[in-house]
Design a protein that fits this description.
Helix content is about 45%, strand content about 5%. It is mainly alpha-helical and about 120 residues long. Strands 1-2 form a two-stranded antiparallel ribbon. β1 and β2 form a beta hairpin.
Length: about 120
């Protein structure tokens, strides 16, 4: 039995339509990520201004802390690279970005709240 595109009206019927749909999906995801980054930047700025107003912390101290955190992965590149840790139960390496071990499911402890 042969099926034509009338049986699946929401499915792209050509590779061009499929590619166009994929690009639209990627564009939508990129927009979502951009909005999320902007909200995070806004939140970080607001938190810093509160800390600066209510504590004796300075811009110089903030900049030094940013460098300290950036150095933790061995490179000063403005990024935090995920580290591998050994699972406390099975001992196998797993990414710190995961909530649990890929191999045995054990909860992976995180050193910092943002890991």
């Amino acid at each position: 039995m042969f099926w034509d595109s009338d049986h699946f009206p929401n499915q792209p019927s050509t590779s061009r339509e499929f590619s166009d749909a994929k690009v639209r999906g990627i564009d939508h995801e990129l927009e979502h990520l951009h909005r999320r980054v902007e909200r995070l930047a806004l939140s970080c700025q607001a938190m810093w201004e509160l800390l600066r107003e209510h504590t004796p912390l300075s811009e110089a101290q903030l900049r030094e802390k940013i460098l300290e955190v950036d150095r933790r992965d061995g490179r000063v590149d403005g990024q935090i690279a995920p580290k591998m840790v050994n699972c406390p139960r099975c001992g196998r390496p797993t990414s710190k970005t995961r909530q649990s071990c890929l191999w045995c499911g054990e909860i992976v402890p995180h050193e910092h709240a943002f890991e």
